[in-house]
Amino acid sequence: MLISAFLIKYLNLEHPLIFSTILVISSLLPDIDSSKSKISIPIISRLIENIFGHRRFFHSIFPSLIFLLLSIVFSSLYPLAIFLGYLAHLLIDALTKEGIMPLFPITKIKINGFIRTNSFMENILFLILIILNLLIFFKYL
C-alpha cells in the first residue's frame, strides 16, 4: 500500500483504487503455501504446502518475477501491482526469524531478521505500517 501511494502520484494511474486493491490482495499471495494462512484455500494450500513446503518456492523472488515479466510484455500496470504486493510480502517476511530463501531453489541462502512471527513486535510493526500507509495514501489521493 505504501508503494501504491507513491505510484498513484508518479504514474498518473487511471484507476488508482483498482491498482491499490490488487497490490494489497497480492501481498497475501506468497502465503498460499500455508494451510494456516489468511489466503488459504484448504485443499489447494495443503497440496502446495506438501509439494513445495512453506517459505520455500512461493517465498522466493521467482513467482513475483513472472508478474513483472507479464507487466513488461503486456505493457500493463496491473501485473506490476501484483509484483510489488508479492515483493512487499517477501520483504516483510525477511524481517522475521523464520526469514525467506529469496533464490530458492537455486540456493538455500536465507535472509532473516529478529521479529518473531505472530509476536507483539510483529503486530506493532504492522500497525505502524498501516498508519504510515493511510497517511501517505490520503496525502497523494
Structural description of this entry:
It is a single chain. With 141 residues, this protein is an all-alpha fold. The protein has one domain (15-140). It contains six helices and no strands. The chain has helices at residues 2-11, 16-26, 42-52, 62-73, 78-93, 120-140. It is globular.
Short description:
This protein is mainly α.
The dominant shape is globular
Helical segment tally? 6
Distance between the termini: 13 Å
Query: DSSP strand (E) fraction?
Result: under 5%
> What order do the helices and strands follow?
HHHHHH
Helix content: 55-70%
Domain count: the total is 1
Low-confidence stretches: none
Structural class of the helices, strands and pairings? mainly alpha
Q: What is the strand tally? A: 0
Largest sheet: none
**What is Rg?**
16 Å
Q: Round the mean pLDDT to the nearest integer and report it.
A: 88
Core attributes:
141 residues
Write the topology of this structure.
Layout: H1 2-11, H2 16-26, H3 42-52, H4 62-73, H5 78-93, H6 120-140
Helix pairs in contact: 1-6, 2-5, 4-5
